[in-house]
Amino acid sequence: MRSINSLPEDFSQNDQLPIRIVSPDYGHLSAQAADKYGLTHRLPYYFLLFVLDGSIRYGVDLEEFEIGKHEVLYSLPNQIQQLPLTAHANDYYKLGFDDECISKLPRQYPFLLNPLNRQKISFSAVAAKRLQAIFQILLDLLKTFNTDPELILAHLNSLLTEINTAYFAAEKRPADDRLAKFIGFKLFVENNLVDHPTIKSITEELAISSDSLYQIVKQYSGLSPKEFITNRLILEARRRIYYGERSSVKELAFELGFNDPDYFSRLFKKVTGKTITVFFQDLC
């Protein structure tokens, strides 16, 4: 049985791993296949875009990003991705892979939880050269459908390690424990989102005080824990509305764990500045 967070059928370029790479002259879907997914879709897998030359604009969760030379944009499963209408950058690599690949790697990569709320990462010229070399090796390996998956996973591990290191480059070592707690908080919220986790349940899970939790979440997100959870719930609502995954406000509210649709509607307007009806109309 395929995971929800997985590459679509027939996307993979390896007979044992769900992974696909694209460059200007390799790996693009046929026009017919691309039309099936459209310019806007909910991602079921991890996506990396590394620009070597030029720039390009991508949308992630209704926010537009410009990715320039030596920058990586990454999107996570369940995020809404909006592909650009204009031509691609002059030179780039795109990589898609899913949870099955992650499960076979020797370590974890905290940047994939985006604890610092950074959707793109910049690299020095030296680091970008290393990154380019790894992407190119992966491309060469994936040109052969039956390549030994161990070779692919070894280089995927190197790639994600490089990106993870760059993501946290500005963080100082003494903050590691606090960062680990924030990642634990974010993961707990993701896993229990529609149950509306309480502050007490989170502090018990992380074995910290409510004051410590507040300080840590405020440091890394700029929000209180309660505000963070609320914003994450409303982001999920926006995703589902944008992707046409609701038939009524009442149904959407119940899906997201709200017993009172009217309260949910008021909360949505408070966070977004728009009613659900206006938000939906603006998308049409």
Automatic annotation (TrEMBL):
Sorted UniProt keywords: DNA-binding, Transcription, Transcription regulation
Q: Does the keyword Zinc-finger apply?
A: no
Looking up InterPro entries in the UniProt record yields: Homeodomain-like_sf, HTH-like, HTH_AraC
Per UniProt, residues of the HTH araC/xylS-type domain are 183-282
Alphabetical list of Pfam families matching this protein: HTH_18
Q: By what name is this protein known?
A: AraC family transcriptional regulator
